Each structure stands twice: as C-alpha cells, then as structure tokens.
Amino acid sequence: MSADFPAYAPSEEHDMLRQTVRELADAKIAPFAAAVDEESRFPQEALDALVQNDLHAVHVPESYGGAGADALATVIVIEEVARACASSSLIPAVNKLGTVPVLLSGSEELKRKYLTPVAKGEAMFSYALSEADAGSDAAGMKTRAVRDGDHYVLNGAKMWITNAGVSEYYTVMAVTDPEKGARGITAFVVEKSDEGVSFAPKEKKLGIKGSPTRQVILENVRIPADRMIGAEGTGFKTALATLDHTRITIAAQALGIAQGALDYAVGYVKERKQFGKPIGDFQGVQFMLADMAMRLEGARQLTYHAAIKSERAMHGEKIPDLTFVSSACKCLASDVAMDITVDAVQLLGGYGYTREFPVERMMRDAKITQIYEGTNQIQRMVMARQLLK
C-alpha cells in the first residue's frame, strides 16, 4: 500500500490503545463487574481507573485539556471497557453523548467552561432528550424553556437519562416556541447544582444496572441565556446531528459486550468435557462459534468504517452517508450482540443461566443496545429514508 492509499485498518497507535485499555479493564474494571451488577451500584472503581489513565472522555479536543482522540480511538476505548463491564463503558460513551452538542453547536465560551472540567475528570456530562411521552417521537417533547430577560426558565421532566444524578452537567432539549414544532426546540446546558433540578428514583432495570437511569426533573430552573447551545430553535437539529456521531458509540458498546461473551464461551468449550472430549471438538459447537465470530467481525468493520466518517464530519467535511452508516452500525452491532450473548449462554448450558458465570449478565446488558439512542426499528426507518431520498 502506498502512503496515499493506506491499509484499510486501524493504525499502530489504535492497536496500542486497545492493548492498554484491555489490560486496564481486565485489571481494574472486570473484577468488580459482577458486584456492580448484583448491587446495582455505580462502578466507581471504573470511573477512578479511567480518570487516572485519561480514558474517561478521550474525545475532548486538546484545546480544552482533553486527549484529542479521534472517533475510532473513542470507539476502541468504549469497546474494550464494555468487554469487561457494559455499565462502565457508559462513562466514556455518555461523556461523549452529552458533550457532542456543545462541540457541534456551542459557543467557544461554552466549550471552555464545560469541556475543560470533563476533560480533567472533574465532571461527567449526560444527555436529556427523551420524555415519558416522547421517546422515538422525540420532537413531541413537552419540556418548556421560557425567556425571562437574560435568563431562561425551564420546566419539565426528562426520562431515561443515563448516569443521571452522577453527572454534573446535562444537555437538555426544551421547547422555546411551541408553534414551530421541531424547529421550536432549543438546547441548553443545565447543571446538577442549579436550583430546581432534582432526580427521580433509579429505574430497576434488566441490565446495565451499574449505570443509574433516572428522570431529571426541572422545576422553575433558571439558567443564564448564555448556556443556550447554538441559536434558539436549532436544538432538534443539533440533537439529530449528535446522534449521527453517538449511535456509533452504542455500536462500540455492543461490540464489546459481544466480544466478552464470545471470549468467555471459547474458553469454556475448550475446557468443558462431555462424552470424553472437550465440547469444542464437536462440529455443532464449532459452527456456532464460527458464526458468532464472523458476524461480530462484520459488525466491527462497519462500526470502524462509520467512526472514520464521523471523525471526518467532526472536522467539517460533508459526509452524505453518515446518517445511514451510523444507523446501520448501531443496528447491526446491537442485533449481533444480542444473538452472540444468547448463544454464549447456550454454549455454557445450565451454567450459562446462573449468575456464577458472566454470560447471563452480558445477555441482559446486550438488550439495551437494541433500544436506546433510537430503537432498531427506528434505525431501519432512518436507513430506509436515506435510501429513498
């Protein structure tokens, strides 16, 4: 390959990053994954380890004190953390989700004020779009932001907010002009410490139990107008542009969960003996493993392809098919993760169904990747619309 046409593969630096994150995750995150799930508690050990190694928000540009990692590097970090603990992978993933609106549309002052503490590990950043009656139909939100001099007053409740109560900052979408529909939605930065901000009890969930999911309740929350992200009425456009980049991080999480399940299943079938030999010697088991690995690698390549397009788009290049490939990789990787984790449970037999082994946790964790940041049914609608334009 010439320098003008490099090999279609991650760079040596990306491979080194993967090794570094995998070693860290195996040593500092995986040992606590079962307890985090069992106790439904925030993975503080993971946050501490990620912050100490500057891996909690690698996407933040160097100009704001961050590592300045590209989108592919961010995917690799999330993937490798998710291989050990899906809940923990939501630390770097949601930090990106919360901050991308600021990166895309925020003023320079807003970027310096909020990205710098995130880069330092002093704060986390969540994303508040969905509401109880505005999930897939996010434009149907009811949260209001009313101008009052040089402030806005916010009222409403945001649903399904990842890491709510732990994060210091929230990108909140609110209606500023009810007559304009989606074009009357504006984005703001809300701080956990703002008067009138509160959180409902944690949701009791099937999986990712270590990542708190709560309602963010806004009661007469008065914030300065300079916390508006972009111009008034551009919030929904920013929200959709954000998801074009961050659906890829959910694909990365799905890849990691699937890889963790496949790795464990491979190790198990080499050791488990029936009929006098390892069950990995049976062709039926070998075919299952081959299909798992084949589909996982296909999803990985699509995700990395999408990450490269995301990086180019973040640098201002127009990427016409970014929406399609980001939806495609999220949809494929999450479907693959669900299938692989179910197969991993099957390969472990009765043991796979118990909490003594990690694959049942991985199976429960995989399910959410088919649902959040746009259900896979919504992803298929998005892809079809892109094709039919």
Automatic annotation (TrEMBL):
The record's keywords, sorted A to Z, are:
FAD, Flavoprotein, Oxidoreductase
Which stretches make up the Acyl-CoA oxidase/dehydrogenase middle domain? 127-221
Oxidoreductase among the record's keywords?
A: yes
Q: Where is the Acyl-CoA dehydrogenase/oxidase N-terminal domain?
A: 11-122
The molecular function terms of the Gene Ontology recorded here are: acyl-CoA dehydrogenase activity; flavin adenine dinucleotide binding
What top-level branch of life does the organism fall under?
A: Bacteria
As cofactor, the record names: FAD
Q: Which reaction does it catalyse?
A: a 2,3-saturated acyl-CoA + A = a 2,3-dehydroacyl-CoA + AH2
Q: What does the sequence similarity comment in the record state about its family? A: Belongs to the acyl-CoA dehydrogenase family.
Supply the name of the protein: Probable acyl-CoA dehydrogenase fadE25
